[in-house]
Amino acid sequence: MQKEAPCLKVPKINGEKAITTAHKLGLVNKELEVQRDNNCIYIPLAKSPSQDEIQVLQKQDINLEITKYTFPERKTRLKTLTELLEDKLPPHLLACVPRAMDIVGDIAIIEIPPELEAYKTEIGNAVLQVHKNLRTVLAKAGAVKGEYRTRKYMTIAGEPKTRTIHKEHGCQYHIDLSKAYFSPRLSHEHKRVASMVREGETVIDMFAGVGPFSILIAKTHEHVKVYAIDINPEAIVLLEKNIRLNRVEGKVHPVLGDAKQIIKQKLRGQADRVIMNLPEKAIEFVGAACKALKPEGGTIHFYGFVTVEEPLERLEQRFREEVEKSGRSVVKIFSSRTVRETAPYEWQAVLDAEIR
Ligand SMILES: C[S@@+](CC[C@H](N)C(=O)[O-])C[C@H]1O[C@@H](n2cnc3c(N)ncnc32)[C@H](O)[C@@H]1O
Predict the structure, then answer these.
(1) Could you tell me the domains of the chain?
(2) Which of 65, 102, 225, 275 is the most buried (most CB within 10 A)?
(3) C-alpha of residue 275 to centroid of ligand 1, in Å
C-alpha cells in the first residue's frame, strides 16, 4: 500500500543526520518507509514541521526541503505474545505466560496457570493479535475426563464457540471440542498408523472419535474397509459428517456403541489391524481386540500411559499377558515408544504388535 504524506527531502549526504534529528523531534511517520534516489533521501513525516522545528534541522547544517511524497507502508514485524503483554502484566508474571498452545481450526486452546487467572482476557486478546487467522481463544477449564474423554473450556477472547473445522494431512474434520475428543497433538500418530496400512486391509478403529485415524486411512488407500466405533453419539454424528466431507463413504463404516459389544456381536475375526486409542482403559479391551483379528492374526496398535513407576517394559508385559489370556500370542512387539507427555512424569505410549 502507498500513502501520500508530508516529506522531508534532504541531500543523501545529510540523510543520517536528518533522520536522527527528525526522530528526536518526533516528526517521523513510523508507518511509512524512508525512500531514496541517486541524490536525495525522502523522510516521511507524521505532520508538517513548525518553523521552530525547521530551524532545529537547519542548525544541523541540513539542506532541506519540505514537500509531499508518496511512500510505501512499512512492513511491520508482528509483535510476539510476550512483547504485546509487556505493559499489561507485572514483569514477574511475564515469565509464566504459557509458551505452548494447541490450535484446532480457528480456535486456540491455552492453559492459564492460577497466577495468571486475573489476566486471562489480556492473554487471550494478545493471542488473537499475534495469530490473525484465529477467531477464538479457549482456556482449559478442567481435565479430560469421563467415558467420552472430553473437557470443559472457557472462552477468554473472541467468538464464544467450540465448533470449528480442522485440517490435518489433507483431510478436514468437523470438531466440537466440548462434545467429542480431538487432539492436534496426535497428528503424527494418525499419519504414522495410516502409513502402515496396506491395500486390501480391514481395519477396526475401536475408539474412533471424530475419525482422524479412520478417515486418513480411507483417504490414502484405494481398497480398505474401516469400522470406526465410538460410544459417544456426538462423536459419531461428527464422524458421519467427516466421512461425507472427505468423501470416504463406503470405506469408513461408523458404528455407535461399546467396542467390546460391537466386536462380540458383529466383527469377530474380521480385522487385519486394530487401533486402540483409549490409553486410560485400552488394557481392558485387549481381549476384544484379539477376537476382532482374523484367525491368522494381524496387527494391534495399542495405546497406554507410562510413568516412572510403570515404565514402557511394564506396559509391554501387561499387554502380552492380556493377549495370552485371550488365547492368542504376541509374535513380536515391533515398535514401542512414548508419543507425548500428558502430565508431569506421565507419557502416552504406543505399542505396535504382531499377533497370531
Ligand atoms: C482418546 S479418544 C480417541 C479418539 C480418536 N481415536 C482420536 O485420535 O482423536 C477415545 C475415544 O473412545 C471413545 N470410547 C470410550 N469408551 C469407549 C468404548 N467402550 N467403546 C467405544 N468407544 C469408546 C470415547 O468416546 C472417545 O471418543
Answers:
(1) 2-72 (3.30.70.2580), 81-161 (3.30.300.110), 180-355 (3.40.50.150)
(2) 275
(3) 11
